[in-house]
Amino acid sequence: MIFNKDTAEKTAELLLQINAIKLNPENPFTWASGWKSPIYCDNRLILSFPSIRNYVRDEFAKNIEKQFGKPDVIAGVATGAIGVGILVAESLGLPFVYVRPEPKKHGRQNQVEGFLQKGQNVVVVEDLISTGKSSLMAVEALRSEGANIKGMAAIFTYGFGVAEENFKEANIDLFTLSNYENLLDLAVQKQYITEDQQSTLLEWNASPSTWGQE
């Protein structure tokens, strides 16, 4: 679910402007999973554009507090959401921790890095939601440390049905600055893509794991 329509449209436009999101239905990308995709999203580029990273920070801070109430801690999911998570925590005047994909294999073998007390209210910040699997693994790591997860806030989601099911099963509320639907509407409006290309992009979104296979 998006925080609000205006933010979703503005965020989509900014991501397209800096090529954080690339749309290429004719020459699809190949994801690490092996899926063929007409879209590629790299929200880490946001950090290289001060005015845009400040916009993302401010929208996150405002909407997180409005939607979840002010938490005790902001947690970022490594590695993509560490930078923006720190910005949000700083804006809200809150402690920050981050969650590794898996525990370290040496030292204290931490998966959650930073100071976190049992029972603290945490909002998790993520950069991108695809299936939601890795994001929800971070949630489980925080829960295993005794955190009370208020919800997750992400920059962008592809809006896959499997992600919605995974978040529902984990009992986690997910809110995003923008999503696939608003991105495509804005991309057509601003002539980044044609309506025919929009149809192709919608077909992919309906069945991403099989799209483009012979």
Overall description:
This is Orotate phosphoribosyltransferase. Catalyzes the transfer of a ribosyl phosphate group from 5-phosphoribose 1-diphosphate to orotate, leading to the formation of orotidine monophosphate (OMP). Residues 59-164 form the Phosphoribosyltransferase domain. It comes from Flavobacterium ginsengisoli. This protein is an alpha/beta fold and 214 residues long. It has helices at residues 5-17, 50-68, 82-92, 133-144, 161-170, 180-189, 195-206; strands spanning 21-23, 29-30, 36-37, 39-41, 73-77, 96-99, 112-113, 121-129, 148-157, 174-179. It has a six-stranded mixed sheet with strand order 7-6-5-8-9-10, sandwiched between helices. A hairpin with a 5-residue loop joins β2 (29-30) and β3 (36-37). α1 (5-17) crosses α6 and α2 (50-68) packs across α3. The longest helix is centred in the first third of the chain and has 19 residues, at 50-68. The relative contact order is 0.17.
Q: Quaternary state, please?
A: single chain
The class by helix and strand makeup works out as alpha/beta
**What does the average pLDDT come to?**
94
Helix amount: 40-55%
The parts where pLDDT drops under 50 for at least 5 residues are: none
Radius of gyration over all CA atoms, rounded = 17 Å
**How much strand content do the residues show?**
15-25%
Shape: globular
Total strands: the figure is 10
Figure out the total of helices.
7
GO molecular function, one term: glycosyltransferase activity
Organism: Flavobacterium ginsengisoli
InterPro entries: OPRT, Or_phspho_trans_dom, PRTase-like, PRTase_dom
Function: Catalyzes the transfer of a ribosyl phosphate group from 5-phosphoribose 1-diphosphate to orotate, leading to the formation of orotidine monophosphate (OMP).
